[in-house]
User: Fold this.
Amino acid sequence: MANVQLNLTANLGQQNTGLTNVGYRLYDYTRTPQGSRVGNLPEIESGSGLYQVAPSVPAGFVGYALIDDGNGNYTDYDINAFMTASVSTPTPIGPDSVTFTFNDAGGNPISYVPFIIGGYYLANTGADGSITIGLLPATYTVAAMPTNAVTWSPGSVTVSGTTTYSVDGTAIPVPTPPDDPTLCAAYTYVWPGGGIQATLSIVSPAQYVQNEWVSLNNYVAISDVDGLISFPGIPQGTQVSLSIPAAKVSQVYTLPNAGTYNMT
Assistant:
């Protein structure tokens, strides 16, 4: 499969200009390292703190580049966010038709589930919860992204002629509402799985400090193994800003007067 040359920019801030050992290492969607660290990335313009990251990845690669400043500080980029190919209508790569369906725990198909075949071929189910793809005869691994509070264990499919892959998932527990009836447990899901940091900031009401409106309440949470990120005690009715840099998420929400709220 042909590789795609990407040109990304790592913004380390002007306070980090002139660094000589900025580098990156690729990881796939299972967070497994791919190849060695690439160092000595060039600064795009002197004094900018912007460094050029130009990995070559297989078309359809799902993963990220973990970027470091050479001093133990990290940021990352979702490689797939920079791919231009549509994942809704993948190109057939073989003659055998394979229909993929991902169901909830009750056997009901889930719409628009992103999944990866063989570690590199990205697709997602349609509105009816299924998709048919042409593949070569072989055995492929299959891994799906948690969707609509449902998660699926990685599996495999052996393709030989017309094949069907249908799997039931497991419901991800929704956070328990706080005991305080004025608070809300706000939550969301990310992929891949655990260890991804998110920050939730209260936008309104805010406070006027040093000639600008600022939020004085910032909450940090880390995703669990199912990709669940939960903020269990946020005042109901407030406007909040959710930031998940690794998933390229930056969104503002108004929390309802309810015990739980799904920000996915």
Notes: The chain has no helices and 26 strands.
